[in-house]
Amino acid sequence: MAYETLRYERDGHVVVLTYDRPEQRNAVSRQMNAELHDAWQRFRDDEGSFVLVITGAGEQAFCAGWDLQDAAELTELGDFDAFRASVYNSPGECGYTRRADIFKPVVAAVNGYAFAAGLETALLADIRIAAENAEFGALERRWNIVGGDGLTARLPLVVGYARAMELIITGRRIDVGEAERIGLVNEVVPRDRALPRAQELAHEIAALPQGALRADKETVVMGVGRTLEERLRLEAEMVVSMFMRRDSHTIGAGAFKRGERPEWPHHGL
């Protein structure tokens, strides 16, 4: 698929996905949504792509949410059964937000507004690097629009129940300082440094052996909502799976014992 609202750029094992509608503050239109589904699956399925960095074009917005001008042109829902089937089958209305099948690391370079679906997009990342001008909020509350792209599922996991409920109910916008205090942001950088810092971190992660890293992320993601016993069993199953990989964890243990730097012929996969 050729992208008109996105930029997909690969540098070594790192992919930078840029939401590229700066005049609309990178709000997600129907066209961008279709392109996002393709781009995320492209990253997921590319064996040579290890880490994804997501960001927004321009200096004002990471992603300002759903493009309501575009959404206003939508027709009535029509037949409920058809609409329900569409919702269940869709990877998301504002990007690849209803799936949990990407276990490669994702870093967000939040360079401005991250409102509504933009906040939900930021929550897709495992690590969020934010510029000092970044702001966050569930502003869809003002327009009586529900959080349909992961807001109610992911935000409580990131900042805790009480903080999440306050932001979801009030629709209050918060600055980057508060976002860092509540754990929504991992690191704050100067205004023009979010993307370079995210890329730097992404390349550091890409240099690590990837097998155990992905297994651990999968264990965390798939363990959400399970009992402690179930999560521990899942973790143990992932340990067993590592023995089936081409680069067993014994390579790392052996190198440690010999005082050597491990060599990963298959990137630890």
What does this structure look like?
Helix 4 packs across helix 5, helix 5 packs across helix 6 and helix 9 runs antiparallel to helix 10. Strand 2, helix 1 and strand 3 form a beta-alpha-beta unit. This protein is an alpha/beta fold. It contains eleven helices and ten strands. The two termini are 28 Å apart. The strands form two sheets. It has a six-stranded mixed β-sheet, with helices on both faces.
Number of strands: 10
State the low-pLDDT regions, or none.
none
The count of helical stretches stands at 11
- Integer average pLDDT: 90
Helix/sheet category: alpha/beta
Task: Give the N-terminus to C-terminus distance in angstroms.
Answer: 28 Å
Order of helices and strands: EEHEEHHEEHEEHHEHEHHHH
Which bin fits the share of residues in helices?
Answer: 40-55%
- Identify the quaternary structure here: single chain
| Strand proportion | 15-25%
| Sequence of strands across the biggest β-sheet | 1-2-3-5-7-10
Anisotropy-based shape? globular
Structure, briefly:
With 269 residues, this protein is of the alpha/beta class.
Which helices and strands appear, and what pairs or packs with what?
Elements: E1 6-11, E2 14-19, H1 30-45, E3 51-56, E4 61-63, H2 68-71, H3 80-89, E5 106-110, E6 113-115, H4 117-123, E7 127-131, E8 135-137, H5 151-159, H6 161-170, E9 174-175, H7 176-181, E10 187-189, H8 194-206, H9 210-223, H10 228-242, H11 250-258
